[in-house]
Amino acid sequence: MYMRIFFTLWVSLWLLGGCAMKKPAVSQPYVIVFKTPQWRFADTGYIRRGDGVTELEVFEAGQRLLRLQIAKTVCVESEGCIGKEQFNARYLSSAYPGNLFAHVLRGEPIYAKLNLKTTPEGFEQAIQLPEADIVYRVENAKVYFKDRKNHILIKLKPI
Known about the structure:
The protein has helices at residues 2-18, 84-91, 100-106; strands spanning 26-35, 40-49, 54-60, 63-70, 74-76, 80-82, 116-119, 122-129, 132-139, 142-147, 152-158. By secondary structure, it is an alpha+beta fold.
């Protein structure tokens, strides 16, 4: 009898805790600007960062406009999960490396720190490639990413 209760409890905990998606640990509100061929919005939202997981939620007039989670894949609430390269090709540019979007949301250097210049408030990168012309700055938790060739602008400003 006790073994049956123990086994039931163990299976329940495993199913509820072990298989659940990890929730990112640190959450911060932002003013989020996205101008891409697929998305155009300038609204408030949250970026949650955790161990290997980054989540973005954007709200317009109190209604959730976008929710996505980046871990091993990118999960867009309205479409399901897709590979990072496939996400870039669909929403940003197929020229970008898989982890670029997660690095931008986290305010981390991109393209293996190519042309990285540290500043008193953070860093900046100017990356010119045949398929991209990127200006990327992170200063005092503000993120500015602009790709002139692919017509992409991402700005994140903490509230």
